[in-house]
Design brief:
By secondary structure, the protein is mainly alpha-helical. The protein contains 14 helices and two strands. A two-stranded antiparallel ribbon has the order 1-2. A hairpin with a 5-residue loop joins β1 and β2. α1 packs antiparallel against α7, α3 runs antiparallel to α4 and α8 crosses α10. The longest helix is centred in the C-terminal third of the chain and has 27 residues. The protein is globular and about 55 Å long. It starts with a strand and ends with a helix.
């Protein structure tokens, strides 16, 4: 696995093609969880889905530098679209996910021209405003979304007509994990393509990329739509696996949660999204059990630690440790 270091000190994971080491780093932990925690596969499927959601944000923030606090809008639209499709009679799961993701991408296409022309604080505030508006719309349109009661009565057909959904969560976990593996390697391929390099150039210096003739706005729009598409997939998977959609999928808190997951794991690393999500959810759960009213203090302290001592997140910290150990081994061999 190759690390491309950017000028401001961050890094992006890349490779020149498919690598079995990357495949092993992703698949082996998923398989290990399947066999090690068979009683917690429903919970594990939720972690996998949230990791995919964090990965979608990394496409926008880590690759293109699109700063957003409203990414839960695409997650929520995907969830509600999948739920409404199932209730309306479209109960085939895979096409339902893809159609729901297309709805999220269409929303990105409509909102992108307003969001992507801005940078910095104005961009953050506009995305936050969009998130608040969609949350309130979902709350008021109870006839469509179920309001505070949520969208219920979601029923999905067995996958390929063969694999039944069970209370043990086996099908849910394998289904969500398969989507994660496919999406991860598609994103990795995109990140290491000329298009991905152009996105990183735009993140580093948008004006310079404009001066050399790069279609900056078009690249940003494609990145924004791909990010929304993946977030829509994650939301649709959540709706199908839980058979319920609540207003929380549209909340600003969900947007903040996914940002924290990505920061903890490492922005721009791709694998960082996969590391930060279980870390955040585990710390949040344990701290809530310890003190339901002070768990945010624990998360805040963890963020301060990452900011001061591991600016590349957990993945960056592990990579630096690996380099240091390898350097010591090289010195010992010489």
């Amino acid at each position: 696995m190759k690390i491309v270091v950017l000028s401001h000190g961050s890094a992006v994971v890349g490779s020149r093609g498919f690598r079995w080491t990357d495949f092993a780093l992703l698949v082996i932990p998923l398989v290990a969880v399947y066999f090690a925690f068979p009683s917690y596969l429903s919970l594990a499927s939720y972690v996998v889905i949230m990791a995919m959601f964090a990965l979608s944000l990394d496409v926008a923030l880590g690759l293109a530098g699109i700063v957003t606090l409203g990414h839960a809008v695409f997650f929520g639209v995907g969830a509600y679209a999948a739920g409404l499709l199932a209730i309306a009679g479209w109960q085939e799961p895979i096409t339902g996910v893809l159609l729901a993701a297309c709805c999220a991408a269409a929303l990105a296409l409509v909102s992108g021209p307003f969001v992507l022309r801005l940078t910095g604080l104005p961009q953050v505030m506009v995305t936050l405003l969009i998130a608040v508006l969609f949350y309130e719309a979902g709350n008021k349109m109870g006839w469509l979304t179920g309001g505070d009661d949520g969208l219920q009565g979601i029923v999905v057909d067995p996958i390929f007509g063969l694999f039944e959904w069970s209370i043990y969560g086996t099908t849910k976990y394998v289904y969500a994990s398969t989507w994660l593996v496919v999406i991860f390697f598609a994103v990795q391929r995109m990140a290491t393509s000329p298009f991905g390099l152009a996105l990183r150039g735009i993140r580093e210096n948008r004006l310079r990329m404009q001066l050399i003739g790069s279609p900056v706005m078009r690249h940003l729009m494609v990145s924004y739509m791909v990010s929304a598409f993946i977030a829509g997939i994650a939301g649709a998977l959540l709706a199908q696996t839980t058979e319920f959609v609540g207003l929380g999928v549209l909340s600003v808190e969900t947007s903040i949660d996914v940002v924290v997951m990505l920061v903890l794991g490492g922005v721009g690393h791709l694998f960082g999204a996969l590391l930060g999500t279980p870390l955040y959810l585990l710390v949040k759960d344990l701290s809530q059990q310890w003190n339901p009213h002070a768990w945010m203090i624990v998360i805040g302290c963890l963020l301060v630690f990452v900011t001061l001592f591991a600016r590349g997140g957990l993945f960056g910290l592990l990579h630096a440790l690996h380099d240091r150990l390898r350097g010591r081994n090289d010195e010992g061999n010489s």
